[in-house]
Design goal:
Structural class: mainly alpha
Number of strands: 0
Radius of gyration: 18 Å
Helix content: 55-70%
Protein name: HD domain-containing protein
CATH superfamily: 3'5'-cyclic nucleotide phosphodiesterase, catalytic domain
Number of domains: 1
CATH class: Mainly Alpha
Order of helices and strands: HHHHHHHHHH
Organism: Dunaliella tertiolecta (Green alga)
Low-confidence stretches: none
Oligomer: single chain
């Protein structure tokens, strides 16, 4: 049993889930994240998010919500579609119904998952742990250059259906919009830890995509 499987089954046990349902939903998750078209959005991405989550100070209820959001946020991932997040939230709702989870928890996890569409906190939402979750999802941006460059390569593989010129233009546009934000990271501790390196990494990738010389 892998560390992720153990974590998932312990989480479900804490929610009153029986072994049969726990095994079923682990198979759904492990099969989905092992799909052959995934290169970055796979189980290792979840493991990296949990590694950082374990270093954060959260109350028990919030830790459960963030953990569920991590497991389910990329459950559906197809780079050719635009509705991955909403379909992932729909599957989480099926899971929640199976476990008879409380409505407050269901709504909170769905909010977290759907917030990854724009990677921003919706207006009038004040949840410090939503900002943490979004930052965990983007933490790869602030990793050492060699780790980031491997991530960039994996994203290119996931979008291999695009020709090079179209991919470069689209990817550079997405990254430029991130770079234009006042801050890439919303959580104070994550910002202090990752912001500077993330901006260097993103700028370097944009320059490579545009075939510009480094500054």
């Amino acid at each position: 049993m892998t560390a992720l499987e153990t974590r998932f089954k312990r989480l479900l046990s804490s929610l009153g889930c029986d072994d049969q349902s726990s095994q079923h939903w682990w198979k759904v998750i492990s099969d989905s994240y092992a799909e052959p078209h995934r290169h970055y959005h796979a189980l290792n991405h979840l493991a990296n998010m949990f590694e950082l989550l374990d270093q954060a100070d959260l109350d028990g209820h919030s830790r459960v919500a963030v953990a569920l959001a991590i497991f389910f946020h990329d459950l559906v991932y197809d780079a050719k579609r635009k509705d991955n997040e909403m379909r992932s939230a729909e599957l989480f709702n099926q899971f929640a119904a199976d476990l008879s989870l409380e409505r407050h928890l269901i709504n909170r996890v769905c909010l977290f998952i759907e917030a990854t569409i724009a990677h921003a906190v919706p207006a009038q939402v004040h949840d410090a742990h939503l900002t943490l979750f979004l930052d965990l999802d983007l933490s790869i941006l602030g990793m050492p250059p060699e780790v980031y460059d491997n991530y960039a390569l994996q994203i290119r593989q996931e979008y291999s259906h695009f020709p090079d010129d179209a991919y470069a233009a689209g990817r550079a546009d997405v990254l430029s919009k991130f770079l234009a934000r006042e801050a890439l990271f919303l959580n104070e501790s994550m910002q202090e830890r990752f912001e500077a390196q993330a901006r260097e990494n993103v700028m370097r990738e944009i320059q490579a995509l545009k075939k510009e010389p480094p500054l």
